[in-house]
């Protein structure tokens, strides 16, 4: 178990890791970076051609795919960069303010 996983609400401040330190590798799945988002993509399934261009450019692997087709967006990790919306040529992705 990684050092950061031992932190509980009862931990003393000296037990906390120094801010910004990466304590171990392979931890990206532990941090739901979607919390940082101020904009978000909106997927219109009826317009989607499943070309997967959006999947190819998403830096956070947030385009969800099943059986070779797009099935949605993983908002736990989508950071709202908008790259996918710029890439979609079929009007299947809008880019809106996070409400
Ligand atoms: S780029 Fe647009 S049309 Fe292609 S899979 Fe993504 S949402 Fe669908
Ligand atoms: S907005 Fe950015 S992070 Fe979110 S799905 Fe699109 S490309 Fe990925």
From TrEMBL:
Keywords: 4Fe-4S, Iron, Iron-sulfur, Metal-binding, Repeat. The keyword Transcription does not apply. Coiled coil: none annotated. InterPro entries: 4Fe4S_Fe-S-bd, PorD_KorD. It comes from the Bacteria. Its cofactor is [4Fe-4S] cluster. Pfam families: Fer4_10. Residues 39-68, 69-98 form the 4Fe-4S ferredoxin-type domain. This is 4Fe-4S binding protein.
């Amino acid at each position: 178990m990684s050092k950061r996983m031992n932190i509980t609400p009862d931990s003393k401040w000296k037990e906390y890791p120094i801010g910004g330190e990466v304590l171990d590798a392979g931890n990206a799945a532990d941090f739901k970076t979607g919390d940082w988002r101020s904009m978000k993509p909106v997927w219109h399934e009826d317009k989607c051609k499943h070309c997967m261009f959006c999947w190819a450019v998403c830096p956070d692997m947030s385009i969800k795919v099943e059986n070779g087709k797009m099935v949605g967006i993983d908002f736990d990790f989508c950071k709202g960069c908008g790259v996918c919306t710029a890439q979609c040529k079929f009007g299947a992705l809008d880019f809106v303010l996070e409400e």
